[in-house]
Amino acid sequence: MSPLNIPEPDFMAEEEVTLFADSVARWIDDHAPPEEVQRWIANSSVPRELWNQAGEAGLLNLSAPEAYGGVGGDYRHEVVLMQQLGLKGADHFGVSLHNAIVAPYIWHYGTEEQKQRWLPRMATGELVGAIAMTEPGAGSDLQGVRTTARKDGNGYVVNGSKTFITNGQLANLIIVVAKTDPAEGAKGTSLIVVETDGAEGFERGRNLHKIGMEGNDTSELFFNDVKVPAENIIGGGEGMGFVQLMQQLPQERLNIAVQGVAAAERGLTETLAYVKERKAFGKRVIDFQNTQFKLAEVKTKLTVAKVFVNHCIGLHLKGQLDAATASMAKYWVSDIQGEVLDEMLQLFGGYGYMNEYPIAQLYKDARVQRIYGGTNEIMKLLIARTL
């Protein structure tokens, strides 16, 4: 039972959704128990076969249409998967990026041929998805992207480098943000799919060593005269990439908020178990008034965060989530996540600093939430523009 005791909103309480949550929880227990997650962390990656197993279990392309091999669900199913991965400590598996960030670009904007070609293979795990936005010199400023896709005969030649790419070591379908017309700035940006298997000139760099989320592979990618068919431009025409990105980024930012609440909720569960068991000065840690006050603050902040995130999920399901509200959810929840996990780690004392305790991993993992998906400073700029 959740320590937050918040009733699920009606749209998440439907029987089909709750049954799905139960099945996801069982799958994670079977395929990603704590000892297995530790192996991911030691190897800096999940096993490649986990993607195929997720496909067999119907956990890939949850909200993609059934006509293209997807499950035919909606954003609620993506939320359930993100929540269960977070609550069970298996959120290093980059499946939600594949499902709720990469695949939507294809089924929202792709041509019929593109949908038929890629989505069924993403649903089975044959193709693992990634999106390559960030570059060594361009992070939150997507207009500063320097990777190019130059027209060459019946196709394009892609040149450039990307960094901090989630799923980068295993992905074999990568949506690359590139300039098809560098002189046009944002209007010259396109999204082009690179299928990496056998692609000459494509090179994976280091699996980057991070302070958190170590079990999720994050990579440098290099494109050196990589030839890509013209039919791999998402939507079939040049110059639509920036608009496509802007339309999809609100969901990515809401994903981060959903994941942040789930991880922090797990932190509260772990902390409550610890302070009820651990003794100091002859009594349980939870019996100290300071502990009670700190946990009361944590529970209140997480309750407010979860209620707001549920509100945003409801808006998104109705197609009413705007970029500013999604930015509020991303920045505020990720700030709160870091704040409350710091408070909870303190209640563990020295043990909280030990990697063998889940609170230490949760604390490390939380830090990147304020950076990726657009830094929290950028979120505040976007919100300020609405004033």
Gyration radius, rounded: 21 Å
How many strands appear in the DSSP assignment?
Answer: 9
**Count of separate DSSP helical elements:** 11
Shape: globular
Mean pLDDT score: 96
Terminal Cα separation, in Å? 40 Å
Helix content estimate: 40-55%
Portion in beta strands: 5-15%
Following the backbone from N to C, one meets helices and strands in this order, namely HHHHHHEEEEEEEHEEHHHH
Strand order of the largest sheet: 2-3-7-6
Q: Low-confidence spans: pLDDT under 50, at least 5 residues?
A: none
Helix/strand-derived category reads: alpha+beta
Largest sheet: 4 strands, antiparallel
Structure explained in plain terms:
The chain has 387 residues and is α+β, with helices and mostly antiparallel strands. 48% of the residues lie in helices and 15% in strands. It is built from 11 helices and 9 strands. It has helices spanning 15-31, 34-43, 48-56, 75-87, 95-109, 112-124, 241-277, 289-317, 323-347, 358-366, 376-384; strands at residues 129-132, 148-152, 155-166, 173-179, 189-195, 202-207, 218-229, 279-280, 283-284. Strands 2-3-7-6 form a 4-stranded antiparallel sheet, with no helix packed on it. The chain has a 3-stranded mixed sheet with strand order 1-4-5, with helices on one face. Strands 8-9 form a two-stranded antiparallel sheet. A hairpin with a 2-residue loop joins strand 2 (148-152) and strand 3. Helix 1 packs parallel to helix 4 (75-87). The longest helix has 37 residues, at 241-277. The chain is globular, with a radius of gyration of 21 Å.
